[in-house]
């Protein structure tokens, strides 16, 4: 993890990597990386225009739902400075192990996971890295990890449309598409439009928009309280000419399960049913 694209010697190392005899400690060359990525069926990024809208929750539960359906799934937490996947999947271990052919992903509940969070001393440690170093880490996470044969690799992007998520999208070869997560408020929708435009400008197919935190079902009377409004995600998707995958209600259970490292997909409540519908819709978009 000491590779830095801003340093000339590391850039040279990167160029020579696929043929170099002293590959140990070097990031994989593009050839090697392409070979590894070629073993993955669908690569899907989960993006959002802003933080806190439930992007990581959707990414983790999407991975879990696909695993439940028998698919082999990997999850790359590409949010280097704010990695939340280890917590959402209840991963306590720290450190990554080097296998015969590269870094070994951690198996969390049957999902192969790589996250910067696994390299931090504690979940409170901060990563104070500049752009080039972060990109070098992502490059290694893609090319130097023994992902093996996978049906899906879900990439949880950092929030927003700054150069960081943009550069990460460019690093993932042959992306199948992007899922955009938003909440119903105008301010979130405004930013989600930007995320859709980012995907479009990078020629990444937008698989669809998910409206999260769309109404709260009152546990007492069953009435739906539209705390942040609802329907904005669908309207925005329509306006931008991209598919709408579905909406997910606010559910205290989702937050509580996430805090305890558990997923809610596959459950028997209204939120799980809505999520099943979203996953079916996504698979339909992929002709599965
Ligand atoms: P992001 O990745 O967009 O920053 P997270 O997935 O980390 O957002 O979610 C932020 C918080 O909101 C987490 O505590 C998560 O459990 C909670 N959360 C996400 N979606 C819902 C939902 N539909 N209902 C209730 N809580 C939710």
Report what the structure shows.
- The structure is a single chain.
- The chain has 288 residues and is of the alpha/beta class.
- It has one domain: P-loop containing nucleotide triphosphate hydrolases (Rossmann fold, 3-Layer(aba) Sandwich).
- The chain has 10 helices and 12 strands.
- The protein has helices at 8-16, 30-37, 55-68, 85-88, 131-143, 163-171, 186-201, 232-240, 252-259, 270-285; strands at 40-48, 73-77, 97-98, 103-104, 106-108, 111-115, 150-156, 177-182, 206-211, 216-217, 224-225, 244-247.
- Strand 5 and strand 6 form a beta hairpin.
- Helix 5 (131-143) runs parallel beside helix 6 (163-171) and helix 7 (186-201) packs parallel to helix 8.
- It is globular.
- The structure holds adenosine-5'-diphosphate.
- Adenosine-5'-diphosphate is lined by residues 48, 51-57, 84, 159, 212-213, 248, 250-251, 254-255, 258.
In short:
The protein is α/β, with parallel strands linked by helices and 288 residues long. It is 37% helix and 18% strand.
